[in-house]
Amino acid sequence: MTIPSGWLPNATIQRVILHWTAGSHKATDFDRQHYHLLIEGDGKLIRGVPSIDLNSLPKAKAGYAAHTLNCNTGSIGVSMCAMAGAIERPFNAGSQPLTKAQWDAASTVVAELCRRYTIPVGPHTVLSHAEVQANLGIQQRGKWDIAKLPFDPAFDTARECGDRFRAEVKAKL
Predict the structure, then answer these.
(1) Phi/psi of residue 41, each to 5°?
(2) Domain count of the chain?
(3) Domain of 143?
(4) What's the pLDDT score for residue 54?
(5) Which end of the chain offers a freer environment for a tag, N or C, measured as fewer CB atoms within 10 Å?
(6) CB of 32 closer than 8 Å to CB of 46
(7) Residue 53 to residue 55: CA distance in whole angstroms
(8) CATH number at residue 80
(9) What stretch of H or E contains 37?
(10) Low-confidence residues in the chain, pLDDT < 50
(11) 117 with 11: CB under 8 angstroms?
(12) Backbone φ and ψ of 15, nearest 5°
């Protein structure tokens, strides 16, 4: 998978935050308003409406992708279209569970973003929405994407999922 070069404008970016949409396996117009890149259930890459450069440092500009509370400036939002009706505890992946194809595509996309924007891979720079509060100290509103992997139940904390994702991104660099 290669992100089209036209989707990657010059910008000063310091991190990538991974999400799920809490919707279906298809990107909706609403989803596209909030993320830079989306990955559908079959692994297909979809461009979000906001350009990455609108989230560039030092200050996000009008029309930026508002994907993470108080953490959008300098952050690219990548979301996997999945997890409609999901419940954290007791865990239920809902009617549109996150797929391995999405996960694999996401790690490839994030590796490309890290290469393009010279982002080192670490827990402060490549993280899921569920890790933002613990890793960056920015209060969130109970977001748990990604703290469970429906296709691999052995990974059931935000940190475990984040560490696995970062390892997969590093392997693709």
Answers:
(1) -55, -30
(2) 1
(3) 5-172
(4) 98
(5) C
(6) yes
(7) 5
(8) 3.40.80.10
(9) strand 37-39
(10) none
(11) yes
(12) -160, 165
